[in-house]
Amino acid sequence: MRAKRCVPVCTRLVLVLVMAAAVLLSPPPPLFAADAPPADAPPADVTVPAVGRTWPVGSHPRVLRGWEPPATPYGPGHRGVDLAAAPGTPVRAVAAGRVSFAGRVAGRRVVSVELTGTGEPPLRTTYEPVAAAVEEGEEVEPGEVIGTVDATGSHCTVTCVHWGLRRGDTYSDPLSLLPPWLLHRGPSRLLPVYGTT
After folding, report:
1. pLDDT tens digits, residue range 78-100?
2. CATH number of the structural domain 34-183
3. Which of 145, 165, 167, 188 is most buried by its number of CB atoms within 10 A?
4. H helix or E strand, kind and range, residue 19
5. What backbone phi and psi angles, to 5 degrees, belong to 19?
6. Other CB atoms closer than 10 Å to residue 18's CB: what's the count?
7. Could you give phi then psi for residue 29, rounded to 5 degrees?
8. Is 83 helix (H, G, I), strand (E, B) or coil?
9. Residues 86, 58, 129, 141: what is their CA dihedral angle, to the nearest 10 degrees?
10. Which residues of 30-159 form beta strands (DSSP E)?
11. Could you report the per-residue pLDDT of 128-158, keeping only the tens digit for each?
């Protein structure tokens, strides 16, 4: 009698486990509609490894504006992501690298880091407006503070950090540096199995 009763329960349990595995193993959807590239956008740089170990600011900052790749090298778009951050917030290196620039560009304070082990030319992240706490040529580790959010120079309606990523002259989505577990919002949840006793 127990074996007959177990068949429907076990079948439901296996079905739930298969569905959970499919959800967990599928790639995460874009966090925001702005993160999804337009249909006519050039293909993303598939050579971007997920080497990031931390967000530049906070533990999971609000993305005010996502990456919008330009259709042409000089066309309109948004060559990075804008992350909400109050003035004075510590800005951290997302991955290991070497500071390639720390200074002003067009009146804004900028820090750029060439990422270690990402090929030739190396991937380079940029953070602005950031008052640098590092100098050009300095080696940095993931999570190391490279500066603080500058109160002036932000192009957002609220203070933000513009985080960019490029290899040579090709821009990429900086969120692609972060592994899926770091992009995930909130804990995983299993669905209940109804009809079991």
Report:
1. 778 999 999 999 999 999 999 99
2. 2.70.70.10
3. 165
4. helix 2-25
5. -65, -40
6. 10
7. -70, 165
8. strand
9. 150
10. 63-65, 81-84, 90-92, 97-105, 108-115, 123-128, 130-132, 139-140, 145-149
11. 999 999 999 999 999 999 999 998 777 777 8
